C-alpha cells in the first residue's frame, strides 16, 4: 500500500510541473485540426469520385 501512496504523491507532484495550454492555444489548435480534417476529407472525396468515374468508364 505504501508504494501506491508514493506513486500517487509522485504523480501529483509531476502534474504540478506541467504547463497546461491556455484557452487561446486550445482554440487555435482545434481550428487547425478541424480545417485540416475538412481539407483531407475533400481531397479523399475527390479522389474517390474520380476513381469511381474511371472504374465506371472502364466497365
Describe this structure in words.
The longest helix has 36 residues, at 23-58. The mean pLDDT is 96. 88% of the residues lie in helices and 0% in strands. It has helices spanning 2-17, 23-58. With 59 residues, it is mostly helical.
Helix and strand sequence = HH
Ends apart, CA distance between termini: 69 Å
The assembly state of the depicted protein chains is single chain
Largest sheet: none
- Uncertain regions: pLDDT < 50 for 5+ in a row? none
Query: Overall 3D geometry?
Result: elongated
For the secondary structure, the number of strands is 0
| Alpha plus pi helix count | 2
> What is the helical fraction, as a range of percent?
over 70%
State Rg: 24 Å
Rounded average pLDDT: 96
Helix/strand-derived class?
Answer: mainly alpha
Bin the strand percentage: under 5%
Keywords for this entry:
elongated, 59 residues, 0% strand, 2 helices, mainly alpha
In summary, what is this structure?
By secondary structure, the protein is mainly alpha-helical. The protein has 2 helices and no strands. Helix content is 88%, strand content 0%.
Amino acid at each position: 500500500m505504501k508504494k501506491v501512496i508514493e506513486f500517487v504523491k509522485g504523480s501529483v507532484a509531476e502534474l504540478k510541473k506541467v504547463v497546461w495550454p491556455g484557452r487561446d492555444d486550445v482554440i487555435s489548435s482545434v481550428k487547425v485540426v478541424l480545417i485540416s480534417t475538412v481539407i483531407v476529407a475533400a481531397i479523399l472525396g475527390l479522389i474517390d469520385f474520380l476513381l469511381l468515374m474511371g472504374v465506371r468508364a472502364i466497365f
